[in-house]
Amino acid sequence: MDAVHTITTAKNKIAVRCLNEAEDGSCRHIFKPWDQRLSTDGPSLLSDDDDPELLLHVPFTGSVKLQALTVIGGPNGSSPAKLKVFINRDDLDFSTATELAPVQEWDLLENFNGQMEYPTQVAKFNGVHSIDLYFPANFGAAATEITFIAFKGEFSERKRQAVEAVYEARPVPSDHKVPGGDQMGQMGM
């Protein structure tokens, strides 16, 4: 993955959340710069024992055109085996994620060094403000482990500013004088 196009600062890390994580907040530590993808500093994301499912919600601070993603999993069959992706939803839980058709899904390979990149159908991933990653299964371990996730694409910052507007319940004509307006009435116009 080209580090220039890897989206690292666009995530709202505080709002990242995961259902079924063994340690609350550990999902925030798997988003690292590309050159630190193999680092073992910080906790990895683990599912609860005997339940390999994970549902990760990642909000962005702007609009993203997602081109690819990388997932590095744990050893001994704990890497995720499947991935279903949903975009711009805030209401997903496990039952909804299993019932809804994903925007795209992949059969994953065990990827320990981050060299496997999963391309997206780019036309479906324009204007992404949040992404939900549903990992329903792993390669046979009791729990799923993820040590790194990266998104590749284009990021545009949200430009939101307050708009100042004054509304009048009843307009007062003397408040809105038009230069030369008095002469128009005299000319018969």
Please give a structural write-up:
The chain is mostly beta strands and 189 residues long. Helices cover 6% and strands 32% of the residues. It is built from two helices and nine strands, in the order βββββαββββα. The longest helix has 6 residues, at 94-99. The N and C termini lie far apart (69 Å).
Radius of gyration: 25 Å
CATH homologous group name: PITH domain
Proportion of residues in β-strands: 25-35%
- Structural class of the helices, strands and pairings? mainly beta
Helix content: under 10%
Layout of strands and helices, then pairs:
Elements: E1 6-7, E2 17-19, E3 45-46, E4 54-73, E5 82-87, H1 94-99, E6 104-107, E7 118-119, E8 128-135, E9 145-157, H2 181-186
Antiparallel strand pairs: 1-9, 2-4, 3-9, 4-7, 4-8, 4-9, 5-6, 5-8
In short:
Helix content is 6%, strand content 32%.
Keywords:
mainly beta, Jelly Rolls, 32% strand, 9 strands
